[in-house]
Write a structure and sequence with these properties.
This protein is mainly β. The protein has 2 domains: 85 residues, Carboxypeptidase-like, regulatory domain (Immunoglobulin-like, Sandwich); 545 residues, Beta Barrel (Maltoporin, Chain A), CATH 2.40.170.20. The protein has a 22-stranded antiparallel β-barrel. A 5-stranded mixed sheet has the order 8-13-14-11-12, with no helix packed on it. A 4-stranded antiparallel sheet has the order 3-2-5-6, with no helix packed on it. It is globular and about 75 Å long.
Length: 672
């Protein structure tokens, strides 16, 4: 029976290949030089289509079977990934240009509701296939070095313990990682950390996760990494998509996307509603959010766009299983606006942006706050010579707010900080296969003063088969307004936290069907802000230090056209292991396109963690599996079923909060 199934899968794949036409591509750099060994993935636009992968020859050329219109994704060592739609009617050889990559290791994940239409970079899986409900949830399932804490089926909540860690760095709450939405840094102005529940999947086209310091490019807060959320942009014509999901505990997600590109202009609108009663009493969650984007191409070189977003959620915290509570609620409303002017020619390209965000927080204990962030960012790239590309930029931000407590009538006051920075990076090709990178940033904070942040890197490509890269980078994060002036112990004398990160990556691609990589890193963290003493005599001090060492491995194998395996493993060893940072974490999945049904079986295995800094609250490890089945329903619809925690494991992620057992959901997506 198994042999027949495999034979049937092979025959279906061969049949699809024979029906496709040949498409001739050449992959070149910005100077027109051929890029051999580049991986080209064909991503069909129908539910039944899956990834087809080929590799360019010594002249940078490849012939691939494709039914137009289609999308291709091109990746090559030392260059940024490129996703390009190819329309029907494009004849002859098509040339695609790749831009030099930055120093950091990124995993790009294209959000699709269509089965089998995503890239394969390291262990990256399409968000939709993974069954993720939010951006944070997707990062946890796709990146082995990432770990997200949560306390239930939906809703992360506020306060310590709820956040994300990359290689054990992030903090509680998460102040050591930065979230960037549509090119603008997004964080709560007073507390200095992102709000996890604000990052839904209603308007996300791509996630780019940088693992390791990205402070040269993004500055304060990017000490341990960056999560970039890129919003949806419509293609030619009008497009509408409606997705509705309903499952256990009255958990639902309902999303509407509508956009159009007409002539030189475009618009895009999204709206989303999420809700759950929770698996425990007093654990409900409700969220609504929406976005509106407008854009116009003044010329081939200049393009302008504006995007606004607002969301509001209410959540309940039921307390630990051993000490349940009622009435612990929080309500948060947040919005943001960005206005961009993009330019692109053959030898220069960039983005000039103004951004602003604001929010208000209401907590059951009487806490109220209003915060805002306003700033601008300029970033421009230049091809200086055939082997040299440089970029440079400047940015400025002003953030802060005010807070008080209605029950105690205490007024925390109003505080604001300002930051300004300039940065530059360079990419130089010493030879065809040997590339050097360097970058420098000077950042000035109105309270913490100035800091200089460098980074260096090198990459060697051994033909198409393997490559090796190494980098050294510095990261930092300034004390937040909460730490300086609010609670638990206001300390205006705090200094920035600092990090030096050293890493090397070896990647091998022996065939077009197998890609594997391994990364080793050494991170030296110092000046970490820690809380000492006992209430009410608490103190915040820059006395923390940690050496984080580890390695991460990723592999993707596609033995036949309609079957692929993905796996990733991360090991972390630290002299000062942070709460909720696992020493071991593995992600894995099996994807099978059975013609009319697409199956995705994924899982995560996590080693034991600690629930506090004193390492007295031990949390056992666990393994959780998720199964998702998707099938087309006519030409414009697909239905899917999701089973989470497939084997009904009892486990905890946040200390004292038991996660739900097996739970199911079903949904429908309409496209027209």
């Amino acid at each position: 029976m198994v042999k027949k199934l495999w034979l049937w899968v092979l025959l279906v794949g061969l049949g699809s290949t024979l029906r496709a036409a040949d498409l001739s591509l050449q992959i070149v750099d910005l100077q027109g030089g051929a890029i051999p060994g580049a991986a080209i993935e064909v991503r069909g636009l129908a539910v039944s289509k899956v990834v087809e992968t080929v590799t360019t020859d010594a002249t940078g050329r490849a012939v691939i079977p494709a039914t137009l219109p289609t999308e291709v994704r091109v990746t090559a060592t030392g260059f940024d990934p490129l996703v390009q739609r190819i329309e029907a009617g494009q004849n002859g050889e098509i040339s695609l240009r790749l831009r030099p990559a930055t120093l950091h290791t990124s995993v790009d994940v294209v959000v699709r509701d269509v089965s089998g239409t995503g890239p394969s970079v390291s262990s990256a899986l399409e968000i939709d296939k993974s069954g993720a409900r939010t951006v944070y949830d997707a990062v946890d399932r796709l990146v082995p070095g990432a770990y997200v804490t949560r306390r239930g089926v939906m809703g992360f909540g506020l306060g310590s313990g709820n956040g994300i860690l990359l290689r054990g760095i992030g903090g509680s709450p998460t102040t050591g990682l930065l979230v960037v939405v549509d090119g603008r840094p997004d964080f709560m102005g007073l507390m200095g950390h992102p709000i996890p529940d604000f990052y839904t999947l209603s308007d996300v086209e791509m996630l780019s996760i940088t693992v390791g310091p990205a402070s040269v490019l993004y500055g304060n807060g990017a000490m341990g990494g960056v999560i970039e959320i890129k919003p949806t942009r419509p293609r030619e014509g009008r497009h509408t998509e409606l997705t509705t999901v309903l499952g256990s505990y009255y958990t639902g997600q309902h999303r509407l996307k509508h956009g159009a590109r007409i002539g030189r202009g475009f618009y895009n609108f999204t709206a989303g509603i999420e809700h759950t009663n929770g698996e425990r009493e007093n654990s409900s969650f409700r969220n609504q959010d929406g976005t509106l984007a407008l854009g116009y191409d003044f010329a081939k070189v200049w393009k302008a766009s504006a995007q606004g977003r607002y969301g509001h959620f209410n959540g309940e915290d039921p307390g630990t299983v051993g000490a349940p509570v009622a009435g612990q609620w929080s309500g948060v409303g947040r919005g943001g606006l960005s206005v961009s002017l993009n330019n692109s020619t053959g030898r220069t390209w960039g983005d000039w942006q103004f951004f602003s965000s604001h929010g208000h927080h209401l907590i059951y204990d009487g806490f109220r706050s209003v915060d805002s962030t306003t700033g601008f960012r300029l970033h421009q790239n230049f091809v200086v010579a055939s082997r040299l590309t440089i970029d440079g930029g400047a940015e400025m931000a002003h953030y802060g707010g005010r807070a008080n407590n209605l029950k105690t009538t205490y007024n925390y006051g109003e505080f604001h900080l300002s930051e300004g920075a300039g940065f530059s990076r360079a990419n130089y090709s010493v030879t065809k296969n040997f590339l050097l990178n360097a970058g420098l940033r000077y950042d000035y904070n109105s309270k913490s003063g100035g800091i200089t942040v460098p980074e260096f890197g090198a990459t060697y490509r051994g033909g198409r088969i393997y490559s090796f890269s190494t980098s050294v980078a510095r990261g930092f994060r300034n004390p937040t307004i909460r730490e300086l002036y609010l609670f638990p112990a206001p300390t205006p004398t705090l200094k920035p936290e600092r990090l030096w990160n050293y890493q090397g990556t070896f990647q091998v691609r022996p065939t077009s069907k197998l890609t594997a990589s391994i990364t080793g890193y050494y991170a030296d963290l110092e000046n970490l802000i820690v809380t000492t003493g006992r209430y009410p005599k608490l103190k915040l001090e820059n006395i923390g230090h940690a050496l984080n060492r580890g390695w991460e491995a990723n592999a993707r194998w596609q033995p036949v056209r309609r079957v692929s395996f993905n796996s990733g493993y991360a090991y972390l060893r630290s002299t000062n292991l942070a709460p909720y940072a696992p020493r071991h974490k593995a992600n894995y999945s099996l994807e099978v396109d059975a013609g009319r049904v697409f199956f995705s079986l994924g899982g995560v295995t996590v080693g034991h963690t600690w629930g506090n800094t004193a390492h007295t609250q031990a949390i056992s490890g666990y393994t959780v599996m998720t199964l998702k089945c998707t099938a087309p329903w006519g030409k414009h619809a697909s239905v899917f079923v999701l089973l989470d925690n497939l084997f009904d494991r009892r486990y905890q992620v946040l200390y004292g909060y038991t996660m739900p057992g097996t739970n199911a959901a079903g949904g429908l997506t309409l496209r027209f």
